[in-house]
Amino acid sequence: MGIKFFKKNIYDLSNTIPVTTVTDAIATSTGEEYTILMRNRDNRSGWATTDSTDAANTTIEIDFVDIREFDSILLLGHNLKAYTLQYWTGSIWADFSTPINETTNTDSSNYYSFTKVFSSKLKLIITGTQVANDDKLIRQFIVTEFIGEFVNEPRVRPVVDRDRSSTKYLSGKTNVSKSIGGFSCDIRLDSVSVENDLALVELIFDSYEGVLTWLCGGDDTQFETQRIGWRLEDIYLMQPTNEYQPEWQDGFYKNGMPINLKMVEVN
Q: Chain-wide mean pLDDT for the chain?
């Protein structure tokens, strides 16, 4: 499974319009004020309830206010076992073309794709957690549109940048400081002649807001071990820092094009 690319999350923190409502008949706190933490692209924080149980039927309703189009939903870093996702048609809540109605989920990150819908609202009904009666937790809630994935298998060189700086003291010891930092990667293809790959590259270079880049493509079992950058929960909003150079391989017009995407995580 190759690298997948998506449009920017329409539920992203930078979109100030959506209204999120959480209902829970049992919890002492629905955590509604913390739903913003599902939108900040950070796996170290998230939304959670307090004193909820499986019987609570916790419901998260997202009102985008405007009609939005999307065909993909990612729930990352969660503990949900049983839940249903539906969209608002304008008159009723409806299932997607492929209904999302989990009853025995054991994954902490899930990706759902379906026929594109045009809707102003989305609803998640949670009826069970993986450990019975635990509080509900979601670290990232992504609602987006699939752009594409490479047909050819690229070479990827990821970098987890902690912006380290060092200061050496008279004692001879060194202090190393670092920040939260960001993620970057070089994506290279030696010679591309597949139309879908070339069109995808042009779309990425042309993107104004950046693209969500998912290196594992939704399958981390293809790797020997699960490492940072390649895990299911690792999806980054990125843009290329280099310019698009549509140069034919070795200057021959009937050859493919070498592709180099220098991608960096953006705000």
A: 93
Q: What is the DSSP string of the chain?
A: ---EEEPPPTT-TT----EEEEE-SS-SB--GGGGGGGSSS-TT--EE-BS--GGG-EEEEEEEEEEEEEEEEEEES--EEEEEEEEE-SSSEE--SS-EEESS---SSEEEEEEEEEEEEEEEEEEEESSTTPPPEESEEEEE-EEEE-SS--EEEEEEE---EEEE-TTS-EEEE--S-EEEEEEEEEEE--HHHHHHHHHHHH-SS-EEEETTTT-GGGSSS--TTTSTT--EEEEESSPP--PPGGG-TTS-EEEEEEEEE--
Which pairing describes strands 93-94 and 19-23: parallel, antiparallel, or unpaired?
Answer: unpaired
pLDDT band at 177 (very low <50, low <70, confident <90, very high): low
Spell out the domain ranges in the chain. Answer: 9-145, 150-265
Q: Whole-prediction pTM value?
A: 0.91
Mention the CATH class of domain 9-145: mainly beta
What average pLDDT score do residues 20-35 get?
A: 97
Burial class (CB in 10 A: 0-12, 13-18, 19+), 103: exposed
Instruction: Summarize the confidence of residues 60-73 as an average pLDDT.
Output: 97
